[in-house]
TrEMBL record:
Residues 7-187 form the L-asparaginase N-terminal domain. Keywords: Hydrolase. It holds the Pfam family Asparaginase. Belongs to the asparaginase 1 family. InterPro entries: AsnASE_II, Asp/glu_Ase-like_sf, Asparaginase/glutaminase-like, Asparaginase_C, L-asparaginase_C, L-asparaginase_N, L-asparaginase_N_sf. This is Asparaginase. The keyword ATP-binding does not apply. It comes from Kordiimonas lipolytica. Residues 204-309 form the Asparaginase/glutaminase C-terminal domain.
Length: 323
């Protein structure tokens, strides 16, 4: 096949790259070239370049690593990029990559729920589907491929510890993959957030509201050196009166984002009027996260503050609504 698309594969480790260790359990040891070689016919689809960036479990990936990765993406002359990594943090890393992305070229994240030595290992199929997606002319920007589905990183979440169907999006996948092609349900949005891959991020806390907690964690946020906090509230954006008072005090000195601990739905802004409900909280200076889940709101706020965006509130709100 002539004039095959050029695809750069960056490997970061994770379950897809794990093999049995010398003592117990599995560890990430397979290289990018190992992963490619394990999929028959993969190189018939594209000219694949392989680079092993790190070999880590995805809990050890950092925002700075993702900034470095997106600089590599920007500098690459490949037609598309595939990133293989662990699934534990992939909903966050892919979202952060979309914030820092400066290109329309496809950047496809994928991984595996089962290690290569397990029966029914899904890594090879996911990598095959990622290459297939990366060569589709309709695909632009950052996406995530798992279990025959293409997801928008702004809405996808890992919802199960072991199921092959662990990754779910509240509006459903952008496309499904069957019979060697993508079946599109809607367009894959390309968002130009305006952030750069500088590697500068501010520390932002994430605290979840739970029954009958006195909010003492909120008292520690400022002294701990955090520059902002995301609160996972009840339901559509509700806190106890004690938490509401503490959140208001924090909001006088730093950004406080109001998100939800619920798995789906948006933060309300004008429905509930009692003390500690969303109307009251927003009047105290908290900023709604809209549809954005708390883990992703934290990344967005961290990047905005780290890059010195002075009008962070307006920019945060604009980015959330653009999603």
């Amino acid at each position: 096949m002539n004039n095959k698309p050029v695809i750069q594969v960056f490997a970061l480790g994770g379950t897809i790259a794990m093999t049995p260790g010398a003592s117990a359990g599995v560890t990430p040891t397979l290289s990018a070239r190992d992963l490619i070689s394990a999929v028959p016919g993969l190189e018939d689809m594209a000219a694949l370049r392989a680079e092993t960036v790190v070999q880590k479990g995805s809990a050890n990936l950092t925002m700075a690593m993702m900034a470095d990765l997106m600089e590599r993406v920007a500098q690459s002359d490949a037609d598309a990029v595939i990133v293989t990594q662990g699934t534990d943090s992939m909903e966050e890393t892919s979202f952060l990559a979309s914030l820092l992305n400066q290109s329309d070229k496809p950047v496809v994240f994928t991984g595996a729920m089962r290690t290569p030595n397990q029966p029914g290992a899904d890594g090879p199929a996911n990598l095959y589907d990622a290459v297939l997606a990366a060569t589709d002319s309709r695909l632009r920007g950052v996406s995530l491929v798992m279990n025959g589905e293409l997801h928008d990183p702004w809405f996808v979440a890992k919802e199960h510890t072991s199921s092959l169907q662990a990754f779910q999006s509240e509006p459903g996948p952008i496309a499904t993959i069957a019979e060697g092609e993508l079946h599109w349900r809607r367009d894959c949005p390309v968002r130009n957030v305006g952030l750069s891959a500088t590697g500068q991020f501010a520390p932002v806390a994430l605290i979840s509201a739970v029954l009958d907690d006195d909010g003492r964690m909120l008292d520690l946020v400022a002294d701990a050196g955090y520059k902002g906090v995301v609160i996972e509230a009840y339901g559509a954006g509700h806190l106890s009166e004690v938490w509401a008072d503490k959140a208001e005090a924090l909001a006088k000195g730093m950004p406080v984002i109001l998100s939800t601990r619920a798995r789906g739905g948006k933060i309300f802004e004008r429905s509930y009027g009692y003390r500690g409900a969303e109307i009251d909280l927003l009047s105290r200076g908290l900023v709604p996260a809209g549809w954005l889940r708390a883990r992703k709101a934290r990344l967005l706020l961290s990047a905005l503050l780290g890059q010195g965006v002075t009008n962070w509130k307006q920019t945060f709100t604009r980015v959330v609504k653009s999603g």
